[in-house]
Amino acid sequence: MQTIFNGSKKKHLIYNGKEYSSAIYNGKQFFEKETPIKNYCLIGDGFSWIDTEIPATGDITIKTSVSVPNPLAGGANAIYGGRATSTTSMRGMYFDPANIRGSFWYDTTAISAQPYTSFNPDIMNIIEDTPTEVKIDGKTRITRTQATFSSATTIQLFALKNGNAIHTPFMSKAVIEYWQAYDTSNNLIRDLIPVPKDDTQYSTTPAPSNCMWDTITKTYFENKGTGSFDIEEIL
């Protein structure tokens, strides 16, 4: 459990059977009653997306929790993705509704031949997308050789960016609980979590809309599309 004290997450403790958070201010320790952090999932509408501002490269690791209970028919439903062109410097994940499987873009190929029976679109799936393998709920489903590629194109959530433009046939109604990116030293460089409009759990500035809060840059990442995100609390 976490709380916010002067804009920072603090540890908690149990005292006389009650939970409290603690903080040090001017050399003294103060306590306040613990306020549980509410967790949410952000839901796409097929017209909305978020720019992670993380370039599509071959050396980062991506972690996310996602489901696609209401996929758009007729094409790939992008969960996250960016590519320099339709065949180069690709990085991302999409759901294939025709074959009911999760597939992944990497370098110059889209790995989709193997059915991923462990990817259930109706529940949250924990994805770990590394340069050498992809795990779904802790089990390795893809192994590959790390490729060296980079792109100025940044990875989008709920969409695929192709060069400088969103590839609209690959929009999605994915449900995302969080999205993280790690560098080659395993440092967390992006940590996006959903927040509802007017939320002040992480900042004294209210969330401008249903969007994502980045715990690294301490900023809101808003919708870049023409639609609007729905949001649900995870109980």
SSE diagram, text form:
Blueprint (H helix, E strand, L loop, with lengths): L2 E3 L2 E3 L1 E4 L2 E8 L2 E6 L5 E5 L6 E6 L5 E7 L9 E7 L6 E7 L4 E7 L1 E3 L13 E5 L3 E4 L2 E5 L10 E4 L3 E2 L2 E2 L8 E8 L5 E8 L15 E4 L4 E3 L8 E5 L1
Parallel strand pairs: 9-17
Antiparallel strand pairs: 1-2, 3-4, 4-5, 6-19, 6-23, 7-16, 8-13, 8-19, 9-10, 9-16, 10-11, 11-12, 13-14, 14-15, 17-18, 19-20, 20-21, 21-22
Can you describe what's shown?
By secondary structure, the chain is mainly beta. It folds into two domains: 3-37, no CATH class; 41-234, Jelly Rolls, CATH 2.60.120. Helices cover 0% and strands 49% of the residues. The protein has no helices and 23 strands. The chain has strands spanning 3-5, 8-10, 12-15, 18-25, 28-33, 39-43, 50-55, 61-67, 77-83, 90-96, 101-107, 109-111, 125-129, 133-136, 139-143, 154-157, 161-162, 165-166, 175-182, 188-195, 211-214, 219-221, 230-234. β11 (101-107) and β12 form a beta hairpin. It is globular, with a radius of gyration of 19 Å. The model is unreliable at 1-26 and 29-33 (pLDDT under 50).
